[in-house]
Structures are given as C-alpha cells and as structure tokens.
Amino acid sequence: MPTTTEEVLAELEAITGTDEVRKNLDIDLFGEKILDSFGIVELIVALSDGLGIEISPGQVDRISWATPRKIIEDVEKRMQA
Q: What global pTM score does this model have?
C-alpha cells in the first residue's frame, strides 16, 4: 500500500502531467500554472477515492493547497481526524 505522500504525489503528477511536483515539494502550483481550479477538483476526487477520505471542494483553497508539501500535510491531517 502506498504512503500518503506517494499517493498524493502520484495523483498530482498524473493530473498536472509533470514530475516537477515530485522534484520540488515547495513549488507554487498556481503561480507556476501547474494546477488550476479544475485540477483541484480532479485531485480531490482522486484522493478521496484513493485514500478513502472525504474532502469537499469547499474545504480546500489555493492557499492551503499551494504546494505539494501543503497538500500532503493537509491530507495527512484529514486522515488522522
């Protein structure tokens, strides 16, 4: 079973089409135009299904999910709740 980090990075890489999300966990996903609003929704659905957690689009914003590292931290917190 993949780790939370691996699951997030795999989904993020598949949705964005770049491995830059693995190379630089602090890359600004929106500033660099790697991820957009549609991509966030795709990621929410993929992570909800893949990790068995509930994430509502209303619970996610560009600031809390600005980098791969922030997404991983947020998802890990949700899994502990």
A: 0.93
